[in-house]
Amino acid sequence: MLRIGIACSLKPTDLPTGMTGPDDQFEEFDRPETVESLARIFRGEGHEVVVLGDGREFLEIMLASPPDFVFNIAEGRGAARDRESRVPSVCQMLGVPYSGSDPLTLALALDKDMARTVVVARGGLCPGGISLPHTSSVEEVANRAILMFDESQSGCVILKPAFEGSSKGIRAHCLAETPGEAVSVFHQLARDYSQPVLMEEFIEGDEITVGVLGNGDSAAVLGVMRIVPTQSDEPFIYSLEVKRDWANRVRYEAPPVLPSRTVEAISEAALLVYSALGCRDLARIDFRLEGDSPFFIEANPLPGLAPVTSDLVILSEGYGIGHDDLIRRILSISLERVGLTDRARP
Asked: What is the pTM of this model?
């Protein structure tokens, strides 16, 4: 039996009075029900569970009474590109083993432009794009947008905050069809998120997400899922509005109705990205298809694990693996990697 701590960033049940900023600033954070579902599963395996939280609460517990193992789903607060690295950094300093990727990988994956650079260097495909400082002038953004439109085969570009996940900042209006629209979207994102903005060529094909589990040579694709819009709006963006109304706006295909050669190419690309970024234990990796070619969009080595609603959970269930079994599998993979398998036996 182990004493397992759950490091988590909890979503407020009531938004703070007088809250300023965009309405999605807590979008990545987990609901208490998600944390309790993990705790229930771990207790069912015979372990003692303590909820560690995030920030100061996490630090105080870790210093006073560190657990045997930390199951990390903490996103971190603020807009810094290293915010997801804080929990594993503390764990490493204190010598406490933890689940998931290390600080470098979590920071690298959160910085979309840096992740793109590494993936391309390893032979992966990415849409054309550039990261612009949030302080960029109208003239600079306009000039970059003109160049981007000249190179975009779809005739559109998409803009997004460079250091966010869970589709934060990615709304329907983020797809620009003219340089003027791109400038307008850029300045709205720069104002709301106070971080660089990624301007990227829009790939018109299918939205794809891939689950990967494991480590080193044993890493394997859990499954591939296609996100299919149920409404005829074109072009389709898997935006925050869509995710919040997913039951009405999309249909999830897992396994996807795609040619076997396409699925194979997607799986190979996902494993390339997983290895290139140094992911451990689990990750969810997103692509857009252009013909049979998967173009890397972003990687999430700290994917949501909420029952019912999280993409990785929906994907897993499409392959016959329910939420509880998925969590047990992730825990087992993590404990094996850190050498705690024997101690984990009841």
From this structure: 0.93
